[in-house]
Amino acid sequence: NRCSKSSSSSSGGGGADTAEKEFDFDLFTLGAGSGGTRASRMSAANHGAKVAVCELPFGFVSSDAIGGAGGTCVLRGCVPKKLMVYAAAFPKEFRESRGFGWDTPEEAHIDWPKFMTKKKDELRRLNGVYNRMLNNAGVTYIEGRGKLIDEHTVDVDGKQYTAKNILIAVGGRAVKPPIEGAEHAMTSDEILEIEEVPKKLIVVGAGYIALEFACIFNNLGSQVDVFIRGDGVLRGFDKEICAFVAEEYQRNGLRIHYGTSPTKIEKTDAGVRVTADRKTEGGGKAPFSQEADHILLATGRKPNTKNLGLESIGVDMDDKGAIKVDEFSRTNVPSIYAVGDVTDRINLTPVALMEGMMFARNVFGDQADAKPAYDNVASAVFTSPQIASCGLTEEEAVQQCGDLKIFTSTYRGMRATISGDEGKGFIKLIVAKDTDKLVGAHLVGPEVGEIMQGISVAMKMGVTKKQLDSTVGIHPSSAEEIVTMRDTTREVSAVEWHKEHGQKTTEDNARKM
Amino acid sequence: MAVLQASANRQLASAFTSRRTPSTAPTAPSQRPLSSLVQRGQRRAILAKAADTQSSAGPKNAGTVTDETFEELVLKSKVPVLVDFWAPWCGPCRMIAPLIDELAADYGDKIVALKLNTDESPGIATEYGIRSIPTVMLFKDGQKMDTVIGAVPKSTLEQTLDKYVD
Predict the structure, then answer these.
(1) DSSP strand E in chain B: where?
(2) What is the ipTM of this complex?
(3) Which of A70, A269, A342, B97 has CB 3.0 to 4.6 Å from A130, enough for a Cys bridge?
(4) Which residues of B touch A278 (CB under 8 A)?
(5) Is B149–A286 a contact, with Cβ atoms under 8 angstroms apart?
(6) A81 CB within 8 Å of a chain B CB
(7) B144 - beta bridge partners?
(8) Which residues contact B158 (CB under 8 A, 6 or more apart)?
């Protein structure tokens, strides 16, 4: 029984001896980002809980003292990033318009400060929206840095509050690798505030954050070099997709350096001077230097769990600093929960929203079985070209689902026949041979970030390839290809795959769907 | 022999051909009359300035190439040309500089080894898309054949050269 209202005597939450105690709040949330705001609002508005949330003062570049309602997504992630993606997409449109006969001038210039002012205004507006949402839901908003004193007490800048339940939703932050001179480099926070379009930019990292920024500035006309430590882009994505997009990125002008790691960053009058090592065939290193206006370090993010008092209370964390939680977002301490990036599950806003919502239903809505579901979570990478994925990669699918049928198609959109765009798109469907279920869908091309949503609904409902094929396409479109892929491109045998990858096929590897 | 692949230097050509031969067809270098010691001295000075080579008595060092001399020294070379793109502020470039000189000595007349300072010759550096330095490029018959980035060991450069050297 998870009845957790502080005024009733209950057997849930903090134990029998706290049953009679009056707490200031039913719930105290640390962090008013995606997960924290959703959880707080829902708990208060839908389930009548008395809720407080604390959040750092608003600012664009985050730190131990700066944050703001809306969190990473609204202020330093998804939203400003997508606005930049839109701003940077126009030159390509202008170029292609000439193919269609428009007399668009050869050179177009962006008034970057004008765009940045509008971007900042939009973020301030959204920050205000988040504050109003919390206020309208009856949530007490406390500005300041929250720290746990004990499992029912939070200190915010010297003032203490007690709560029956505490929810930690402080998110994560960009982390710079320990390179000499890293202080001269930007992280995603800073580059989202950059004052002018750089002529030369070095981006370090192979993940979607690194590549999205690399493509944004490449599209804006910067000379962009990407330094990647490994030998591929977008680790964790389907390998065939990774190879396809890497080629498209380079065709678009991105220069990707594999086996390359920066070792030193120096500041110069013009920008930065970077020394890096490049892996050679013999397994050695060849150092080189390169100058740029800026260098962006986008090699990883870590949960924001330092100096919250978690260690002294004994909240379990993993070696990355992520708070360990169970399927109900509970930590090892009965009154303490955690949602969002701080738990390092799937670090996407819609997932944090789901985790926050389920937390509210479970803890305050008496839905004992309410918990987040992580299957078939679709996501998009807003590089040029865009990528969208839902479900499993081929590598995951062969281990979890056994034999597979793979359907792929490379296409050049109809628009390109007139515009002259040389870019290609790619569609990949992964079907489990025994059930005919679509277990993985991966798209590369224009607008796939929008196209994928419909497919993800079908996948969540367990759509089969036969059902897909029975669906009539929308014509003319790129998306219709998805329902017209009749011929299997290739089959994957689980037994052969395991032989090649030297793993035993065990019962545990049977499909987890 | 002081007559390098750079014998077609424009300044030189105009000094020695247009005044001496009435016909408009260009005369091959071996046929041009070099009638005076003064003119020979001038010619040697121009070639020396262009290619910065030592006398044939000592070991051959890598020469210098600039935006102005690139076409003559690299693209019009009869033998493969190794170009080391470097800059004074580049630490790893200092590691590879002596290797280029060694290769110049090792391969003798089979190649031309040249160094290009990208700060002083940004035109060629940009034209060939030089961003990371040192970058070593190998040219044959006026075409870029290979690119090696970074302060690689001498053996890597030798492997590259051996693909194109006769």
Answers:
(1) 63-64, 81-86, 112-117, 135-140, 143-149
(2) 0.83
(3) A70
(4) 132, 149-150
(5) yes
(6) no
(7) B139
(8) B103, B106
